[in-house]
Amino acid sequence: MSKKSEKQSKVFISFGDVAGGFKPVSAAAGLPSSMSTPLPLYGGSDSELVILSKKLMKKDGVTKIKAIQDLVGVLNTKSEATLAEFLVFFVYAFSKLYLEDHRVIREKLCSILLTVVRVERRLLAPHMKTLIGPWWMLTGDPVGDVAVTSYESFCAAIPPKKRQLVLVYLSSSILTEAVKNIHLRPETLCDLSLTPIDEAEERLERVMVSTLASIEKFVTTLSAEQNLQLARGTADVGVESFGETVMTYKDLFTQAMWSKCLESKFVLVRRAAYQLIATLALHTPEVLTTRDISNKSSIDFFKLFLSCLLVETSVLNLHVLLASFVTVTTSIPAFFDIASVTEDVVPVLLHLLQPNAPFALEYVLPIAGSLPPEQVALLEPASADPTAALKQSQSQQSMCGFLQQLFDFAEQKAAEGGVQSLRSEVVAGKVKSGRRNAAEKMNVHKMLQQQSQRAECVVLGIQTDVCAVELATLLLLRRSTSFSSSISSLKENQISDNVEAVVSQLVQSIIITVQSATVALRGETTKGNLFQKAVEASVSDVAISPGSAQVKETARAALGAIGRSLLQLHRAALMEMHIS
User: Fold this and answer.
1) With 0-12 CB in 10 A as exposed, 13-18 as middle and 19+ as buried, what is 9?
2) What is the pLDDT of residues 108-134, one digit of tens each?
3) How many structural domains comprise the chain?
4) Structural domain span for residue 561
5) pTM of the model
């Protein structure tokens, strides 16, 4: 053996160490039936470890933290034989303590593993099947230091070229732990006679988020072929030859699991579920599209996923959900074959256009843009003759009704502008530069006192207008009978004059809004005013000719310019609020 290979054999646990040479322990073996069941104490001969092990299992958090910190410091001085005795106790203690609320305890648990790896890595090999589930769950811990330490200790134990093989071999243990965590309840996770219900629910939320994030990391670590094997149940996992239950993706990603996560009252759990769905769509879409005729699980999943768009209350979650939706529809062309556009998707779009959704277009755009060409083609009759929709099928009527509502919304925004009252003042010439009388100065002073609120209103108003322009441009570029042609090859006569007019009106409306913002927010602006400079740059950037012959190119350029201008305005507004 070369020096290099000899050194490497001492640094890592090899795949052979994990997969052979010992009788595997079931992922569930030795785990307590209840979270409150006492775990075995260290029964070795080292008196120092006896004391620290007892302290580690105390209920008092401070005692646990002190014990685990001391263990990190003394384990590297112990012999291999002593460490081997200690690990028999520690792998069981780990399975309970990794659920602890205190971040230091969870982080130091991984530090102990890292210490063992550095002393003698192969001591962990006989315990990997019992240990890997809780160990991997911590790689998704919401606390960054815990997640990093957990993954660092895993990487220190397994050589880079063998990590995927080891994870697949141990996948049943990992998935078993994930299934157990997903279906935990506050009363099974904590003793409610000792723990307040709100603390128990906080712990449950963290454990579920950690579990979902760790499974997302698991999926992204494996290759596409390995994920496919786990989805189909054909992976070479390390339990088949011993008659144990094989856990696959089908056992984890069930309708019950998605219902619990997507309908959870915990905001962070729902967000983690949305992110996991996007990752699955990219790396192993078969998990989401495999159709079980007996229970129509994939159909139910897609309906549940779409219903989240109707009930999600967190703005940040809605952004993540929309990004996930776009990823799913882009990565899974069969999505619209499984979920009905007219029955499942259009109601969501119409819901997002309701008056109580001020930023509806931000969410409507990605959904409308992801519709399949044959569905968008249904919009064509309404462009030439809106009454033609009444002569079409119910499916076409639904789509044409949605189109009409979009255009009504866009035209309304074009007529109103971003800030209606300010726009009318500018147009009427009521706000003028130059000298002001005392009353006007008092009004300006009051306006400046409300600067932060006014700035936010203007920025949000411009955002709404920008969304309307993007929407109209989306329809401008997509609404054509020749969907097989690329956007750049569309002819002028294939583009609706109505859409062109709406785009031009909306861009001009934004220019007026920006000009209004200058006068209303700052009054007599100075040459060095940051907001003024941003406004001047924005106005010159987005100005286009309404009668331009190259509407497509102009619209694209205008959208890019508007995006940059909006960013400038937002930054300048925030800076002005802090400076004043």
Assistant:
1) middle
2) 999 999 988 888 888 888 889 999 999
3) 1
4) 368-579
5) 0.67
